[in-house]
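Notes to self after the Tuesday call (sharing in case useful).
The group wants a holo model before anyone commits to mutagenesis around the pocket. I volunteered. Ligand is TLP. Logging inputs and output together so the record is complete.
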Amino acid sequence: MIDLRSDTVTRPTPEMRRAMAEAVVGDDVYQEDPTVNLLEERAAAALGKEAALFVPTGTMGNTIGVKLLTEPGQEVLCEARGHLLNYELSMTAWFSGCLIRPVEAPGGILTWKMLEPHVRPLGPHWAPTGCIELENTHNMAGGTVYPQEVFDEVCDRAHERGMRVHLDGARLFNAATASRRSAAELCARADTVMFCLSKALGAPAGSMLAGPRVLMDKARLYRKRLGGGMRQAGVLAAAGLIALERMSLRLQEDHDHARLLAEGFSEIPGIRVTPPQTNIVVFDVLETGKPAGEISAALKSREILINPINSSSMRAVTHYDVSRQDCLAAVRALAEVVA
Ligand code: TLP
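Result:
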């Protein structure tokens, strides 16, 4: 099977498996796991933040990040296709007691001009906006990258208005690679940031939440409340260190593969695709006359896995376990299926 459903499907590299087997561990709930402690220090340094916390998933990182920046009864602004709103089982409502107000943005990139009309002060009828959540890269918009001045302006204006900013940087290192900036530069003005070790970076599990130390101390308690106190988690953190320090340097290859896929797809009659900026190719199949679900099933019978997003669009994601040859095979299979 050539698995283009997501970059979450990567399996740990042989080097990760060795590091996991040899990891020095302790009880992380007592903060005594040296490998977790090291990963947290290195992640904080990579992001230019005071402290970082190892969490089991990106969803938990976002859940805690938003909780830290809001009070119950506030609103959170996020892009209409955002992961926080659509794929996290309403955790913002359940855990933070906040309503998400979605704002549509072309390419998933929210500017201050788009956000400002939706910012609400406290009033007799209104819940105040507590926090803005941005996604970089934006997953369902096709792995798009924030122009840095747009991102920074949203943060600055939000802060002037007393709001705070959480960055869902599940694929922050893809954004860094594409924009040729450091991850720290990208998130410098956000209050809290989450990135995933278990997506493009190839670790088997784990994400990092980072921000000021006082917030990360609180985050540690929220993580425990959510059932995320993982004890000898150094076994996972050992793979996370390799993800952070080595795998983050090879992402251009995935981006090149995504471009190759998109170029091939764009030559197939009825397929419309925007050139990808990173490792995610979202493409429209409406004009083929076939529903995306049917195309996905037909591809599966040819040993290619690509998920539909809805009835007319699909998403292919490149990653460490996908080669140039695999991408060419996927293009050939899609052309056959559509024909
Ligand atoms: N994304 C997954 C699915 O949930 C859609 C994927 O296959 O892309 N933020 C962003 C931007 C994400 O893309 C994801 C996962 C998460 C957060 C959540 O991470 P996990 O799955 O670790 O909870």
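Two things stood out.
The chain has two domains: 12-248, 250-338.
The chain has 14 helices and 13 strands.
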